[in-house]
Each structure stands twice: as C-alpha cells, then as structure tokens.
Write a structure and sequence with these properties.
alpha+beta, 3 helices, 87 residues, 4 strands, 4-stranded mixed sheet, globular
C-alpha cells in the first residue's frame, strides 16, 4: 500500500447515480472515488438489492476496492473532474 495515499473511512450510497462514493487523501488533496453498483456486484459475486447490502459488501471488500482505486491513482487515471471511477 502506498503510504502517500490514505483512504477515509466514510462511504455513501448515491441512489441517482447507482454508485458508492468514498475518498482518498493524496498529498493533502481529497480525491473523490466512486464504485458502481454493477462493479461492486461483480466483486461480491452476486446481486446487492438494498443500499444496506451494498454498504456491507463495500466494507467486506474494502481492502480490494481501495487497492483498485490506489492503482488508478498511482497510474494517474483520473477522470476529467479529478475523480477515480471504478466501473
């Protein structure tokens, strides 16, 4: 794990976009990160019908998800808005 990238504990479900939002800190800047419901269901190997299921799956898979986001940050794969998207 890259010590210059730290992930915050918070995570929030965004119903309209069908994604979870979490964030990282890199050199003092906040990097918004998003994982889509579809991608999270792929990682969890099954449907996650309720927001509570999505949040639980995120927590269970947090280390793996943070590794994926960290890799995108390290490779400078930022979207135009400066965010990292896992779709």
């Amino acid at each position: 794990m890259n010590q210059s990238i730290l992930f915050n504990d918070g995570v929030a479900w965004q119903e309209t976009q069908q994604r979870l939002m979490f964030s990282a800190q890199m050199m003092g800047a906040t990097v918004p990160c998003y994982i889509s419901r579809h991608y999270l269901e792929q990682l969890a190997a099954g449907p996650l019908p309720r927001p509570a299921d999505l949040l639980q799956a995120f927590e269970t898979l947090r280390f793996d998800i943070e590794e994926l986001a960290e890799q995108k940050i390290a490779e400078q794969e930022f979207a135009e808005d400066g965010s990292i998207y896992l779709y």
